[in-house]
Design a protein that fits this description.
Elements lengths: L9 H7 L14 H14 L16 H11 L6 H7 L3 H13 L12 H22 L5 H11 L2 H10 L15 H19 L1 H11 L18 H11 L6 E8 L7 E8 L2 E8 L2 H17 L29 H11 L1
Antiparallel strand pairs: 1-2, 2-3
């Protein structure tokens, strides 16, 4: 019996056979796992940095500097601001490139090395005075700890990046690293002082640096070693009797969910309350609570006043080794 295909013309038989060059339609089983693998590999890789803003065709550096000052609400000298965002390494690199192509080296390019020191001093002096005035009962060691937190490179670089300073920085590396960004912020503070005066620079520090204290528990920025010993020394300097710890409440004794609440009493007066999974930890937490009450840094304290333009207090707070409630109250009365 002859096949039906053999009865057809040759060209019709070829048309009915599937061509090897024509791909079949439908879902490719290899597509999904391949894309998933590529996505996982991309996530493990470091993110690619965005291109420099100056590489865009619509970039006008002078206009960007002018706009940056207006965004800050400051009337800045553009030459001073340009120097504030120019690193010393960038200037040296530019000089080397000019020498390489035979161009006369421009030695009038200013960098921000001196302005960094000036701005850092302005930030340090104003922030130190502000913290002392806002927390007059806080020991000086705690004041220094808060100051170091507010003025460290990480926080200042974050502020600089949010203000758009990263796009204006003239550096040899891209993206701009944390140190150069924070130094750029310090230099901008010096530029404001040089353009509008130190009082204007102080207000800038208040508005951008000191407002980081909003919603921040300053007790977490300073770790007190051995709070029981510190509390005992303060009570002794104030002429008070030693504290007496008492178990106020407990639950789950001899279990992994044990919890104790300890109260510290002086002359039958509760001065601190703390909880913990053991009596020792609860007693230490109660001592920390008592110290917060003495230093007036509890969660119920008054919010920091940022409306002040001039700070009256210029003297240092008492050290933790000399701190006593009587001395602090006398000092606060004399200051007012």
């Amino acid at each position: 019996m002859t096949s039906r295909l053999s009865a057809l013309p040759v060209f019709l038989v070829r048309l009915q056979r599937p061509s090897p060059l024509i791909q079949s339609r439908g879902f490719k089983r290899w597509l999904r796992p391949t894309l998933q693998t590529l996505k996982k590999r991309k996530e493990k890789m470091d993110p690619e940095p965005l291109p420099r803003r100056s590489s865009f065709t619509d970039w006008n550096y002078k206009s960007e500097l002018f706009a940056f000052g207006k965004r800050l609400g400051e009337d800045l000298n553009l030459d001073v601001l340009r120097a504030a965002v120019t690193t010393k390494e960038f200037v040296l690199s530019e000089m080397d490139q000019q020498k390489a192509v035979g161009i006369e080296v421009d030695t009038q390019i200013n960098d921000n090395s001196k302005m960094i020191e000036e701005g850092n001093e302005i930030i340090h002096n104003y922030a130190l005075n502000f913290i002392r005035s806002a927390f007059p009962k806080f020991p000086e060691e705690g004041v220094i700890a808060v100051l170091n937190y507010l003025s460290n490179d990480e926080n200042l670089s974050t502020l600089a990046e949010k203000l758009g300073l990263a796009d204006l920085m003239l550096t040899i590396e891209h993206p701009v690293d944390t140190v150069n960004l924070s130094n750029g912020f310090r230099a901008v503070v010096a530029a404001i002082s040089e353009s509008s005066g130190v009082d204007r620079a102080n207000l800038f520090v208040r508005d951008f640096v000191m407002t980081q204290l909003v919603g921040k528990n300053i007790n977490e920025l300073w770790e007190i070693n051995d709070p029981l010993r510190v509390l005992s020394s303060i009570l002794q300097r104030d002429g008070k009797q030693p504290f007496e710890p008492r178990i106020v409440a407990e639950a789950g004794r001899n279990t992994i969910l044990a919890n104790y609440q300890i109260g510290l009493y002086v002359n039958k007066e509760l001065i601190g309350l703390g909880s913990g999974e053991s009596i020792k930890i609860a007693t230490e937490m109660a001592a920390r609570d008592a110290l917060r009450e003495l230093f007036d840094t509890t969660e119920s304290m008054k919010p920091v006043n940022f409306d002040v333009e001039s700070l009256p207090q210029a003297f240092a707070n008492f050290s933790i080794q000399d701190w006593s409630q009587k001395n602090v109250e006398k000092l606060m009365k004399t200051s007012h």
